[in-house]
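Help needed: design a sequence for this.
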């Protein structure tokens, strides 16, 4: 994928702040610290675009990144950070629910989990929530450099079991080694074309 431009269009909390309709989007979600910002930066060949946060759990807005003036990446707020209050958790839920309700332009959600660990109950709840709202969801296993390639399958079957996946693919990526992002890009462009959007690849 050739990235000609990437810009942060909107940092939205409320629905009326979402960008104009008609431009397709895919969204990224996962636990704080899972490597979401790093993965978005790797996809876009940018260093510090989606901020790689030193203090997890701080992002409480929905960030829309306009890519090549053709489609959006939607950076959803992370969850599962221990040190947040009840009211902050409720706020997160409201922001997410508002976004997930009837978002016509949303073609797929990528749920990021750490390849090393069994997904948490929060991850499982997130996966079920996305399916409940009727969106397609693909799991991306981050930090793949932390285990040897020979262990990928074993770790991915743990992920598969916990989330209740059947034969859906899981895409392993490493932002450190820059691996897996070509496969993730293929999945993203296929998703857009399945939804009838023509995306310029190069
Ligand atoms: N080894 C390794 N570390 C990673 C990778 N991706 C992210 N990290 C580290 O994990 C931490 C959280 O990353 P970040 O992208 O900010 O996660 P976010 O909170 O989900 O946006 C940072 O210290 C990153 O350097 C990866 O692919 N491999
Ligand atoms: Mg982040």
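Sure. Designed sequence:
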């Amino acid at each position: 994928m050739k990235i000609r431009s990437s810009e942060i269009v909107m940092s939205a909390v409320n629905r009326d702040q979402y960008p104009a309709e008609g431009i397709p989007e895919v969204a990224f979600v996962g636990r704080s610290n899972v490597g979401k910002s790093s993965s978005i930066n790797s996809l876009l060949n940018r260093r510090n675009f989606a901020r790689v946060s030193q203090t997890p759990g701080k992002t409480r807005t929905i960030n829309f990144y306009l890519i090549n003036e053709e489609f959006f990446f939607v950076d959803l707020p992370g969850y599962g950070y221990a040190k947040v209050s009840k009211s902050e958790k409720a706020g997160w839920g409201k922001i997410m629910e508002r976004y997930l309700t009837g978002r016509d332009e949303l073609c797929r959600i990528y749920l990021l989990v750490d390849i090393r660990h069994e997904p948490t109950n929060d991850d499982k709840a997130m996966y079920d929530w996305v399916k409940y709202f009727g969106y397609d969801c693909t799991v991306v296993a981050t930090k793949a450099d932390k285990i040897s390639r020979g262990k990928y399958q074993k770790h991915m079957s743990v992920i598969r079991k916990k989330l209740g996946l059947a034969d859906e693919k899981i895409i392993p990526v490493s932002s450190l080694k820059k691996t897996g992002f070509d496969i993730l890009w293929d999945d993203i462009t296929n998703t857009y074309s399945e939804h009838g959007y023509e995306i310029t690849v190069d």
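The chain is about 30% helix and 20% strand.
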